[in-house]
């Protein structure tokens, strides 16, 4: 019972479930936006609202399955510290999990973000050039929509860069912990500091969304008056 209590409240298992979910939700948004832009007809004919709900449920289940059992197996419960990812059955098991985790929540998402948003911006800009040279009616509305699309994609790319930069220190620190190098540990102030950088993304992102939207800019202009 003490182990269960430590697992739920003394370790970082639940925290990492939330981290997993937030990262994979961003990945899902990137892929969904890519499909909408690149394969709009297929998306219109086949995408159903329940797809999104199902994927969100899967994302949270994946976070639970990935983090809770591994935290229980690897946590040091001595002296009621509940320090996770420090007492693996074998060093190979720890190395395998850390490698999988960094790939799945940092490296692969980063590749997906860059691929999806780069392609989306290229497609939208290509469409803008086609509309500009065709001289078709309703061009102003189309151009406005394209600009909105590009603005949204730029916003998501800013969030991607923020995610990449602020989570990098904790990922590197995580590697050093597993390598048992230079006294790196989850019980140090340095670990809390690099985690603070990572969690800062959750505080910064709402401001990025706000500043990049027209409603926020209009509010600021009105407020200044």
Automatic annotation (TrEMBL):
Keyword hit for Membrane: yes
Matching Pfam families: 7tm_1
GO cellular component, one term: membrane
Residue stretches making up the G-protein coupled receptors family 1 profile domain: 21-209
Major location (coarse): membrane
Transmembrane segments: 13-31, 51-70, 98-124, 157-179, 191-211
Top-rank taxon: Eukaryota
Name of the molecule in the record: G-protein coupled receptors family 1 profile domain-containing protein
């Amino acid at each position: 019972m003490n182990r269960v209590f430590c697992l739920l409240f003394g370790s970082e298992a639940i925290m990492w479930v939330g981290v997993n979910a937030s990262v994979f939700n961003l990945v899902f948004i990137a892929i969904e936006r890519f499909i909408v832009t690149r394969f709009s007809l297929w998306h219109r004919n086949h995408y159903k609202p329940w797809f999104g709900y199902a994927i969100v449920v899967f994302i949270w289940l994946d976070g639970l399955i990935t983090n809770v059992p591994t935290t229980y197996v690897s946590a040091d419960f001595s002296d009621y510290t509940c320090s996770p990812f420090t007492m693996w059955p074998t060093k190979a098991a720890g190395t395998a999990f850390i490698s999988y985790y960094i790939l799945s929540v940092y490296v692969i998402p980063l590749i997906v973000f860059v691929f999806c948003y780069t392609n989306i911006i290229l497609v939208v800009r290509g469409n803008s050039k086609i509309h500009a040279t065709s001289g078709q009616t309703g061009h102003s509305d189309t151009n406005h929509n394209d600009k909105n699309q590009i603005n949204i994609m730029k916003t998501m790319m800013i969030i991607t860069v923020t995610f990449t930069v602020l989570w990098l220190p904790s990922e590197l620190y995580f590697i050093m912990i597993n390598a048992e190098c230079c006294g790196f540990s989850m019980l140090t102030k340095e670990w809390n500091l690099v985690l603070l950088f990572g969690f800062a993304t959750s505080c910064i992102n709402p401001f990025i969304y706000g500043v990049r939207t027209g409603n926020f800019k209009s509010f600021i202009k009105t407020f200044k008056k």
